Amino acid sequence: MPAGKFEVFSDKKGEFRWRLKASNGRQIASSGEGYKEKKDCMKGIASLQKNAPEAKIIEMDPPEAPKKTVKKKAAKKKSAKK
């Protein structure tokens, strides 16, 4: 099975970023932040390569859906005329 690849590039701000592409060319991960120095970008890739094989998979419960606030119309009080 062909391996994926890391691509290193500079963004509009001139900062370095990486993206990981699968063997089919689809992007599956990215740096998420820009690095001012290319060497720091390369360290980010090295860290991922080192730590990912041992990373645990933790399933997170989906966040609770926000509760809808229902505004009830105030009951109109009939003024008693005497």
TrEMBL record:
SUPFAM superfamilies assigned to the protein according to its UniProt record, in alphabetical order: YegP-like
Positions with biased composition (Basic residues): 68-82
InterPro entries: DUF1508 (IPR010879), UPF0339_domain (IPR051141), YegP-like_sf (IPR036913)
Residue ranges annotated for the DUF1508 domain, each copy included: 11-59
Database matches in Pfam families: DUF1508 (PF07411)
Region described as Disordered: 59-82
Designated name of the protein: DUF1508 domain-containing protein
